[in-house]
């Protein structure tokens, strides 16, 4: 038994739900198929004992992310500023130092940070986000790791190590894993068609991608869209097979088969490659998708009766250099009501590799020790604690996004968004701007909906 | 309905069949489950019109590959020397030059080749194949691409480019895609416990890994083992799910469910990660397997009435520098009877990226043009032609083996062979020596059988 709609959408995250919403607005019928028993993809609200929520997944929004902000506004979802009042703490070796702004007070590393930031700004400005492989020096930039590129011309190892830490949270991977060209394209994408991308905007809080949070938790955006789509969203329906013909598509899930004129696939590329395709995906597109494994990232959050660090003039933010701690960066994640107090730490990249295999109790203890380095020993006695390891999540398998190693972008990158007859691609990894972010997901969903409407214009 | 055996083996390639064979010898019952409708994995005989065979997959064996050679001898399978009589041809730009030996006559590149070979020999000699991450400089070596490492200290780009060509066939990937540490470990593994690995042995014909071929085609080794195993081998049974408990395992395929005390999984790691595991694979093992995407490689073979190039004093071997041709290296692949004449070219790495998406006719024409650069215009008029694109093969998805990018080996490498309760790993990627080769596959199968026997010693 099979159900027929105009467009089948695989995945009920921001990309899939946005695509479905735009298609319904255009008068099309849709069916959104979601493997999980919930919507939201890499956004996930964690409900606290008192019913308030805090995010266990993607959560921050900021300037130039007008697509996700516009969608939120459309849905009546509001935002509030992330907490930035007070000093941030820089942790290096046995020392913890307070500072203000985004640049840690490391006198030895400062010249390198300045140099690296300038080089990144200049070099990323030369990259066309829609076609990084067209860069005149693309071959050379893609043949080296971002770590190699950062080290070249650096004065010492300090600045490189620190930038690596900052990227650890943004990427879930060390700079060694990314191609330099991919890293530059990623930075170039931290903006929009008018505002060129920048590292500052990518890693910054005030004025940057961590500036604001979503009232009710970021998952609420997907939940509102799903409510409006109603019965068109089917949960618990992992897609096992997609048959695509000149006349239409058939998508087979654990919860039945669905026929459509077109299909938009928003699963992470490395999971899209696991679907049984008939006919097969082109070998080059499959080869690319398999090389888009996600970074390794978990979020660890501790709950306190109140955000006590604010009373000490601390923002709750911390930057950890050198890899001695599981946490590479941390934020005040207190709900807009002001209590309970919540600290959130990213355990990403090399930190994840080291700490994820350890027993939960040991890891949790080390995370609290990391927090204590920033806000003092009171961090050791939370009233609650939870973790979300996105790498262990069956239908994501990593976080926050894909990391392309050297040699991939120039040889296979152009296949990323290429439609395959009636098969269209969306998802945060299919966006030129804010690739890997909520805004990129929304952008990609809107673009896929437009492509389907254009492509199916001629259908009966 | 389910069948119970001592050990379920996933995959009927060399690793799986060898494991099953050794287990049966030890008195165990086995069931080998193969997704394809044939055995042999990455070995595949192509039958010529006259009934002779030539290989479309892995084919060469050489010194120190005593595990596959020993197995062949056990099965009554013999080998014969690859054709090496005559000159090899070096193709660069518009020039084709004849030479003897393994080092092309490129005067400008020669100093770099010598330098790179010496550096590779020295540096790979310092790598422990069983634990490359223990190298004192492992972090630095793993943070850079092999291309970066080769370029460092090189005099010009020529030598690097040429070594890249040689690796293109061995790896199916450019040196830009591999971590330097992984590349060094790969070279260090081109030997055995007594003979240290070397680049010469890896890329060489006489005295190297391309020294001999298998009479009847390399797939015959697997076919003989499968014959002896009889009904214990089930074809057309892709494994979809593996449940592993303290008391045993259940393996679910499209052809039924199979219970066992233990399971040996020999699927390529990146495909093993696609199986539905219950409980899940540890996130770190999954993260590693997903980062073990295979190189991109196809074999293109042209058939002629006789090996006419031999009459011109040519070996039929060619080395192509610079990437202007689809073929990066070619060999005389004539059957031991001496006719028909067959030329085989590898289209790998960057060449595959460029040429695989093109129409078959255009690609075939360019391959024959490549052959003509080596043996003259007679190459343009074959009596037959066939290609095998291993990247398009559903149950391999690349070739010849996994290529680890920077940052993976040091942070996740130790999880490669780690058993998971009653789950054991084998396959060419699970061997320290001749990783990715037929010998590595046989080694891994033997090791897995020993591990199962040791592990299950205490079972009732």
Architecture overview:
Chains A, B: Belongs to the flavin monoamine oxidase family. Two copies of one chain form a homodimer. With 460 residues, chain A is an alpha/beta fold. Chain A folds into three domains: 2-42 and 218-293 and 405-458, FAD/NAD(P)-binding domain (3-Layer(bba) Sandwich); 81-102 and 206-214 and 295-399, Polyamine Oxidase, Chain A, domain 2, CATH 3.90.660; 107-203, Guanine Nucleotide Dissociation Inhibitor, domain 1 (Orthogonal Bundle). The first copy, chain A, is 32% helix and 22% strand. In chain A, a hairpin with a 2-residue loop joins strand 10 (239-245) and strand 11 (248-253). In chain A, helix 1 runs parallel beside helix 9 and helix 3 packs across helix 6. The model of chain A has no long low-confidence stretch (mean pLDDT 94). The interface between A and B is large, with 40 and 40 residues.
Give the tags:
homodimer; 460 residues; alpha/beta; FAD/NAD(P)-binding domain; Polyamine Oxidase, Chain A, domain 2; Guanine Nucleotide Dissociation Inhibitor, domain 1; 3 domains; eight-stranded mixed β-sheet; seven-stranded mixed β-sheet; 15 helices; 32% helix; oxidoreductase (chains A, B); Flavin_amine_oxidase (chains A, B)
